[in-house]
Specification:
- By secondary structure, the chain is an alpha+beta fold.
- It contains 10 helices and 17 strands.
- Strands 8, 9, 10, 11, 14 and 15 form a 6-stranded mixed β-sheet that branches. A 5-stranded antiparallel β-sheet has the order 7-17-16-12-13.
- It is elongated, with a radius of gyration of 33 Å.
């Protein structure tokens, strides 16, 4: 008779465990919100199996308590679960105070510890502890919950990655439409361009815009950030630049001030654009230029030392109002060269964390200034590739080189 009663109780216990497991599994499979799953998990263990104290830790940027009951206060993250819970230290902090507990159990999945559960019993518990009696089931149930939550997070992360990849591809397509792969060579200048985007989409933009009576504007810009927001901002900027050049090309200061206002309005101060723009007037034999926080372009005269063109103002969109804009003029001679570039060129590091640098660029251009713009760009990129070696490109790389005739 005693054996029959014991068997009956064992069957009832197994049935209770099976019912609880099925209920929780249905909850997980029905895509119940994560917090509700934890509440169901608590209801099962606290209500049906008399687990009065439990803290569940998961490794999410550190071992943090993701759910608990029976412990009053904030449970601190674990510095080292093996030492804190299973080793000699045996300490869990609640509101900064060490808290006693009955046992701590690692929960494994495929040989990896995915969680730790810290357990306690009712005070003055008589007979066998419910925690001890149901330890195997508690571990199994916790494993089901934690693995389900991990799978959800991995699936969500996978979806986010797919969405991000598609966004970058779309932004890259938009970027390719903004950046001309070739530019016209005419009587007054020969221009070569090179562009290498970074991971489908970059923030670099360059353009050569015909104005009137042989005048041409050359622009090199870089928008902060990546992805569709950056691509949309640069597309918007390109449209404004083309429109303003039709009636503001004679006043670079006014053009830059208005561009700044439009970028600030579009980006709300959260993004900005660095810009170098130069307008070549062949009848006067000069360029007027302004540098808005961009990498200073390199000007190499047909003879003599090259120099960088730095004067200007802050990047566009950094400030709501530009207090002052410095426009400069440079007289030209036949054979002079202007090399515009973005930071991906000069800031590229090699395996010794040494940058390609403006100094290296200047030396190369001075040595090779007799080459055509396309050939000079090729020599620069060849030296850049040799410098970076096995290091991946750190950013977009854009070059626009103009030889004045």
């Amino acid at each position: 008779m005693a054996d029959a009663n014991r068997l009956k109780k064992q069957v009832e216990r197994y049935q209770t465990q099976l019912d609880a497991l099925l209920d929780l599994t249905r909850s997980i499979n029905s895509n119940t919100p994560g917090q509700e799953i934890f509440e169901n998990y608590q209801a099962v263990l606290r209500g049906r199996f008399e687990v009065s104290k439990l803290a569940l830790f998961r490794n999410i940027d550190g071992w943090k308590c993701v759910h608990s009951w029976g412990y009053d206060g904030v449970i601190a993250p674990l510095e080292d679960p093996e030492k804190d819970l299973l080793g000699q230290r045996h300490a869990m902090l609640v509101d900064g105070q060490a808290q006693d507990f009955d046992m701590a159990v690692p929960v494994e999945n495929e040989g990896e510890v995915v969680a730790y559960i810290v357990l306690g019993d009712r005070d003055e518990q008589q007979g066998m502890s419910p925690v001890v009696r149901h330890m195997g089931f508690i571990t199994t149930l916790t494993n089901v919950v934690v693995v389900a939550m991990r799978n959800r997070e991995l699936a969500a992360e996978q979806l986010n990655q797919v969405a991000l990849q598609r966004e970058l591809e779309l932004a890259g397509e938009m970027q390719s439409m903004l950046v001309p792969s070739q530019v016209k060579t005419d009587t007054f200048r020969e221009i070569g361009v090179h562009y290498r985007p970074h991971h489908h989409v970059g923030g670099d933009y360059y353009d050569v815009i015909e104005i009137d009576q042989g005048e041409v504007a050359m622009a090199m810009a870089d928008v902060s950030g990546k992805g569709m927001p950056a691509a949309f901002l640069m597309s918007n900027f390109q449209a404004h630049l083309h429109a303003l050049l039709t009636h503001r090309s004679d006043d670079l200061e006014a053009l830059v001030v208005e561009l700044n206002e439009r970028v600030f309005k579009s980006a709300g101060g959260e993004r900005f654009i660095t810009l170098f723009i130069a307008i070549h007037n062949p009848s006067q034999g000069s360029i007027r230029y302004v540098n808005c926080g961009h990498n200073p372009p390199l000007f190499a005269p047909s003879q003599g030392e090259a120099c960088f063109l730095a004067p200007g103002c802050p990047g566009l969109g950094m400030l709501e109002v530009l207090e002052s804009v410095h426009v400069d003029t440079l007289d030209l001679n036949a054979g002079d060269t202007l090399c515009l570039f973005t930071d991906g060129l000069v800031e590229q590091e090699n395996d010794r964390q040494q940058e390609f640098s403006e100094e290296r660029l200047q030396q190369l251009v001075e040595q090779q200034r007799g080459l055509s713009p396309d050939a000079l760009n090729g020599a620069i990129i060849e030296a850049w590739e040799a410098h970076r070696g096995d290091q991946p490109p750190a950013d977009d790389t854009a070059l626009l080189t103009c030889r004045f005739r």
